[in-house]
Amino acid sequence: MRIDDVPIWAVFAATIAVIMAAVEFGYRLGHVRHRQSEDEKESPVSAMAGASLGLAAFMLAFTFGIVSERHAARRALVRDEAVAIRTAWQRSDFLPEADRAEAADLLRQYVDARVNFALAGSLDPERVKAALSQTERQQARLWNMAVANARKDMNSDVAALYIDSLNEVNGIHATRVAIGMQARVPGEIWLVLYCITILGMVSVGYQTGIAGSRRSLAWPILALSFALAFALIGALDRPDSGVLKVTQQPLIDLRDAMNATAERMSNRSDRAGKFR
Fold it and tell me: How many angstroms separate the CA atoms of 51 and 59, rounded?
C-alpha cells in the first residue's frame, strides 16, 4: 500500500502513535540499562539523541522544500494555463468562419472540464483516465482544424500564431499532468524519514531512562510537532488531499469570461435573425 492511499488524518494519527511507541520503547530500554549499570553516562547519549533529532529535522526540512516548491509550481501552472488558453481562444478568431465557432466552443468545453476535474479533487484512476482521454480528444480536434487551415496557406503568419498558442496549451497540460498527478515523494524517502525519526525518538526515550527520570510530559508535544510536519508534507505532496488545495480561480474567471462571450454572441445572432 502506498502512502498516497492513506488519508492525511490517518498519517497524522499514525505518526503520533509510532513516535510515542518509539519513545516508550527507548525509555524502557534505558530504564533497564540504568538499573543494570550506572556506568553509562547521560551526556554522550544526549549528544547522540540531539544528533538523531537534528538529522530527522534536516530530512523533514529538505522534503518540505521539495513539496512546497512543487505546490507553488502547480499554482503557477494554473495561471499559465489560463493565459495560454485565453490566447488560443482569442486567436481562434483567425480561423475561417466555418471552424471559428467550433474551435471557440471546444476551448470553452476544455476549460470547463479542467475546472470541474480540479474542483472534484479526486484522483481515482478511472476518473483520471476518462478526463485525460477527453482532453486528448479535444486537443486532437483543435490541432487537426489548425493544421487543415494552415495547409491552405503555408506562409500564413496568422495560422502560425494560432498553432503556436495551441502548442503552448498542450505543453502546459503535459506539465500539469507530470507535476500534479505523477510527481510524488518516493516511498523510499518516506521510509527513511520515518526510520530516522523513530531512531531519534528511541534515543530521546533512552536518554530519559538512563537518567533515571520519569516519563516526560514533553513527549506528546514532541510527537504532535513531528506528526504535524509529516501531515503537512503529505498534504502538500497530494493535490487531492483536500488540504491546501491549489486555487483554480484563474481558470474559473476564464470560463466565466468565455461563457459570457458565448452568451453575447448567441443573443446577437438571435437579434440578427429577428430582423431578417
Answer: 12
Identify the CATH number of the domain in which residue 166 sits.
1.20.58
Is 74 a domain residue? Answer: yes
8 Å CB contact between 104 and 89: yes
Rounded-to-integer distance, Cα 53 and Cα 47, Å: 10
272 lies in a domain? no
Q: Is 41 helix (H, G, I), strand (E, B) or coil?
A: coil
Whether residue 232 contacts residue 24, with contact meaning beta carbons closer than 8 Å, is answered with no
Q: Which domain holds residue 232?
A: 7-267
| Per-residue pLDDT reduced to its tens digit, 30-61 | 888 777 766 666 667 778 888 888 999 999 99
104-154 confidence digits (pLDDT tens): 899 999 998 888 887 776 667 787 788 888 888 999 999 998 888 888 876
Q: Please report whether residue 204 resides in a domain.
A: yes
Total domains present in the chain: 1
**104-129: b (≥16 Cβ within 10 Å) or e:** bebbbebbeebbebbeeeebeeeeee
Residue 29 phi/psi, 5-degree rounding, is -65, -45
Burial of 234 (0-12, 13-18, 19+ CB in 10 A): buried
CB 184, CB 237: distance < 8 Å = yes
Candidates 157, 143, 32, 159; CA nearest to 93 is 159
Q: 182: how many CB neighbours lie within 10 A of its CB? A: 7
The answer to whether position 150 is within a domain reads yes
**Span 157-212, pLDDT tens digits:** 777 888 999 999 999 999 988 887 778 888 899 999 999 999 999 998 888 888 77
